[in-house]
Specification:
By secondary structure, the protein is mostly beta strands. Helices cover about 15% and strands about 35% of the residues. The strands form 5 sheets. The protein has a 6-stranded mixed β-sheet, with no helix packed on it. Strands 1, 2, 3, 5 and 7 form a 5-stranded mixed β-sheet that branches.
């Protein structure tokens, strides 16, 4: 689409909610329902999310020309039972999804985790619990969460801080927490039967360490982890450096946690059109922290403006580099700066296209950078 033909920002952000039901019962709901790894029948079966074959989706899109009861027009153009051309129905589904963005759903993720001071120690509390999480409008799935959030609350401290984290397990199986990327004493590493006993159901376990290295890090379960992390036991752990002079200057920052398991293809626990856009004023510089908690790689592509990649796994690179697509593998964290030089609504998505768009429209790992 030509930039001059883009919808006004106000139209995108203030779309009528009445289209939500149309989207739910047509393309987006059908696509989401078939693409979620666990399916609607069981939120506990963890398998990699896959794209359904064309035969499974064309009927919902009105393009099944075999035994679906659809005919063709005089020029051979496929039509639906209502007489509309199949491509028109497809366009309507694509448009409906865009107009819903950003769709409202229940549940806020990665809220700053408050702490209390006990002497010179910052004390945080995390509770592992089951939560019904709304991934997209009208689509709720069971998730295993920290403090009812998916991803869990953001833990943000400063290099050199002493922290104590009390983890209470309200699940019906044992768990543990690993501090991914952080330098911790061996007995605080969070791996049951190697560094600690498991945190059994109903019990509370205490982790305590001094934060030694700055950067973008994560925390997640390391017990039955394929299931527990996939179900949602994950969150960002951000450590501010004592000396910020080595980091590039920026005006705003955003964290994007990527996942592809029990809730389908998500950014910060939500699938398009319920993902949250990144926003900036013209001329601002934004920092994006990518974190991949899934099982697949995700090449993240921002339209319109390049990304200056300056840190990996919490370490500043000796030579930053520019790109428009950055591949983020499981467990990796990347930090980038985007100079918001061009106004507009810019698409931002995983460039494995089956994670982002189908005949029914955009879904999953899609959001936008809105520069005003």
């Amino acid at each position: 689409m030509d930039r001059n033909e883009q919808q006004p920002i106000e139209q995108v952000l203030n779309a009528p909610t009445s289209r939500r039901s149309f989207l739910r019962w047509t393309g987006m709901a059908a696509a989401a329902g078939t693409m979620v790894a666990c399916g609607r029948e069981s939120a506990l079966t963890i398998e990699p999310a896959t794209v359904p074959p064309a035969t499974a989706t064309t009927a919902a899109a009105g393009t099944d020309h075999g035994n679906g009861g659809h005919g063709t027009g005089n020029a051979g153009t496929p039509t639906t039972d209502s007489g509309a051309k199949a491509w028109e129905e497809m366009d309507k589904m694509h448009e409906a999804g865009i107009k819903l963005f950003p769709a409202k759903t229940e549940g806020l993720s990665m809220q700053p985790l408050e702490y209390r001071m006990e002497g010179d120690v910052k004390v945080f509390e995390l509770t592992c619990q089951k939560t019904m999480w709304e991934v997209e409008p009208g689509r709720k799935l069971e998730a295993w969460t920290y403090n009812g959030q998916l991803p869990g609350p953001e833990i943000r401290v400063t290099e050199g801080d002493k922290v104590r984290i009390l983890v209470t397990n309200q699940l019906d199986e044992s768990t543990a927490v690993h501090w991914h990327g952080l330098f911790v004493p061996n007995n605080q590493d969070g791996v049951p039967f190697i560094t600690q006993p498991p945190i059994t159901p109903g019990s509370t376990y205490t982790y305590e360490f001094t934060v030694r290295n700055s950067g973008s890090h994560m925390y997640h379960s390391h017990h039955n982890s394929t299931k527990q992390v996939s179900m949602g036991l994950l969150g960002p752990f951000i450590v501010e450096p004592k000396d910020k002079s080595k980091d590039p200057a920026y005006d705003k920052e955003f964290t994007l946690v990527l996942n592809d398991t029990a809730q389908g293809f998500t950014i910060n626990g939500k699938g398009f059109p319920a993902t949250v856009p990144l926003t900036a004023k013209l001329g601002q510089k934004i920092r994006i922290r990518y974190m991949n908690e899934g099982l697949m790689i995700h090449p993240m592509h921002l339209h319109g403006m390049p990304q200056l990649v300056f840190a990996k796994d919490g370490w500043n690179l000796p030579q930053p580099f520019m790109c428009d697509t950055l591949n983020v593998a499981p467990g990796e964290r990347w930090d980038v700066i985007v100079d918001c030089t061009d106004p507009g609504v810019w698409a931002f998505h995983c460039h494995i296209l089956s994670h982002a768009e189908s005949e029914h429209g955009m879904f999953g790992m899609v959001t936008a950078l809105i520069v005003e």
